[in-house]
Specification:
The protein has 180 residues and is mainly α. It has 10 helices and no strands.
Length: 180
């Protein structure tokens, strides 16, 4: 995997098999072995992996540490472990304040449209190649703001025009398949 570069390391599906596998394992144990899972306190794992993830993000962002493939892999790994621990702690009822935050309307909207954000956020800078906001220019707060606003607009349009209508078809498709 070390020959992969840049965006390909981030978007290729097999790169995220660890996250998918960890999520599947957590769901399996939550469904089939709840008592075992509840006896395990993943709180410390969550705290430590969150600390390492934040340390890696700060190091990679503010100290101009070269982001090589191994650093990205460990960042993804620790972020995934943090996420698994947080989800487990929420299921166990130990993070009520965090759950309240996740139920806050703006956060729910971001969660609902997160797939669109994921799809479009890397493409948006390319729309501005021949403009004053070109990604080839040195990074600026204005560029980031323009990219965020553009991503938000495209994501909302995608949700309303593509994703939401497709989601509404799920029930019809399920009923059709069940009748066959």
């Amino acid at each position: 995997m070390t020959h992969l570069q840049g965006i390909s390391l981030y978007v290729l599906p097999f790169i995220h098999l660890v996250a998918l596998g960890l999520g599947a394992l957590l769901a399996y144990f939550h469904d089939r072995h709840t008592e075992l899972l509840q006896s395990i306190n993943l709180h410390l794992l969550g705290v430590y992996t969150c600390m390492v993830t934040i340390f890696l993000l700060i190091s990679l962002t503010f100290f101009s540490v070269k982001i090589d493939n191994s650093a990205r892999y460990f960042l993804f790994l620790f972020a995934n472990l943090s996420t698994i621990a947080i989800i487990h702690e929420m299921w166990a009822g130990r993070l009520r304040n965090f759950v309240n935050l996740m139920e806050f309307y703006p956060v729910r909207v971001i969660g609902k449209t997160s797939y669109g954000i994921y799809l479009y956020h890397n493409l948006v800078p390319e729309f501005f190649i021949r403009s004053p906001f070109s990604p080839s220019l040195p990074p600026s707060y204005v560029n980031v703001l323009v990219y965020l606003i553009t991503t938000a607009i495209i994501t909302v349009l995608s949700w309303k025009l593509i994703e939401k209508p497709c989601n509404l078809l799920k029930n019809s498709a399920t009923n059709f398949v069940l009748r066959i």
